[in-house]
Design brief:
mainly alpha
């Protein structure tokens, strides 16, 4: 059922390329880094969403086929795929929750210390997360180039 997985990823890439690619080009042409990063994040997020959807569809198909054929091995492979898709959803949710919490904390800390750059940087990260989530209605990955060398690095989930 790898066809379903690939179809999910390709579907995500096509949708992300159409929306996110357009935004990224606009950001590059207009020299607006935030818009470019927003577009890149939309591409990454739709690919991740497609990957999760494809994995879930593949797992469901394997389970159904295994049940119909009375093949426990195939049915178990399907369960494993479904668990993998669920794990990706949970992992992405935790990452996004941590990003929101970190950004909120940095905004408050920046306001306390009157660090305008920290407040702006954290607000942009939070806004990007909200915008990408609203546009993609799925899993979210943020494309974050470090604007300053001293800025705390954030990791993004890949699987």
């Amino acid at each position: 059922m790898k066809v379903l997985k690939k179809a999910g990823i390709i579907g995500g890439a096509v949708i992300g390329g159409a929306i996110g690619g357009t935004l990224s080009v606009i950001g590059k042409v207009s020299n607006k880094k935030f818009v470019d990063q927003l577009g890149s994040s939309i591409i990454d997020s739709t690919i991740l969403t497609g990957n999760i959807a494809g994995t879930a569809a593949s797992g469901a198909a394997e389970m159904i086929a295994g049940t119909v054929k009375k093949d426990d091995t195939q049915k178990n492979q399907g369960k494993t795929e479904l668990k993998k898709a669920g794990g990706k959803v949970v992992h992405n949710f935790v990452y996004n929750f941590k990003t929101v919490a970190d950004s909120g904390g940095e905004i408050v800390d920046g306001m306390k210390k009157k660090d305008h750059k920290k407040v702006v940087r954290s607000t942009k990260r939070l806004a990007k997360l909200i915008l990408v989530g609203a546009i993609t209605t799925g899993a979210v990955l943020l494309d974050e180039e470090e604007e300053e060398q001293g800025q705390q690095e954030h990791t993004t989930p890949t699987d």
